[in-house]
Amino acid sequence: MKNIVIIGGSRGIGKALAIQLSEDHRVLVLARSIEKLQEMQETSPSDNLMIGAVDLSAPNLRDYLSTLISSYFDQVDVLINNAGYLVNKPFLDLTEKDIEDSFATNVFGLIQSCQAAVPLMEKQGGHIVNIGSMGGFQGSSKFAGLSVYSASKSAVAGFSECLAEELNDKNIQVNCLALGAAQTEMLEEAFPGYEALVSAEEMAQFIANFSLNANGWINGKVIPVSLSTP
User: Fold this and answer.
1) pTM, 2 dp
2) Residues noted as catalytic
3) CA torsion sign, 205 to 208 to 212 to 218?
């Protein structure tokens, strides 16, 4: 049984991940909406599901996360950075707040989540899985209105490659999954009426298996997970 931390798990893929992984592992799910987390915990059939509130744009995030995670686990085996913030706007309509909020969640918060978890992985090793996007994958099809979102996910990809190298001697593997479209609330909010070919539960099943097993032979990679080409 592994200790798993999921950042961003109150809905969509993160929620499905938490439910699936908590069947056999201890899972701490952190998200902004404590109400949604409480509802998920109350309806979960597993006693292995723990929850906590976090705002990835808050000051002193690293210290807050370190204290919070340490209150549940003395060792973290898997960290899944799943939180995401998506703005779909024409480039010239983007506000400074749109840009700041996108990078605060998708990049700055993710980096500090890693900083908080790594000390709890150093003793026995672990796997960090950063959830990116096909929008941030070089050579993929791009969409108007997603310039800042895609740029932030490109940063996640580059960061993941570099962090894997830096943690190589600590037996901590880092990979980035560049996800294609999955049917989630965030997708529906950004693209009303669009129907993805993959459900949140199906995508979560892939991520769960990858997080638990793939670091045995994959490290420092940005992997596209999409039914479309490019």
Assistant:
1) 0.93
2) 149
3) positive
